[in-house]
Amino acid sequence: MKSFIFLVIPFIVFASGEAMRPLDHLSLHGSNHRPSIKMKKKMQVYRLRKVKEEQAEHIVKKSTGEPSTSLKLTHKGKYLIYKVTTKSHYLVINALDGTVIKQESREDK
Q: Looking at per-residue confidence, does 75 or 16 come out higher?
């Protein structure tokens, strides 16, 4: 029963945040991989976000107490997310409403 709950939790967390509209999501995908097309799609991702990098860094600082070392804007399914790493944490932040979707501690090996 516990393992079932752990399998369901990510779906609940992702379902709680704001998602992109279907047309916005479809516009990010295509079969043309020319560099100019890739750049246009990257710029479109930046136009769709509502949380800027500075705001995401502030969220990271508030959640972990550490500055971010890496911040990347991307999309996963219908969610626009920031993947952020700090010295000892890994976070995923919703770029549309600023909620922290996932927070893990990093274990350097």
A: 75
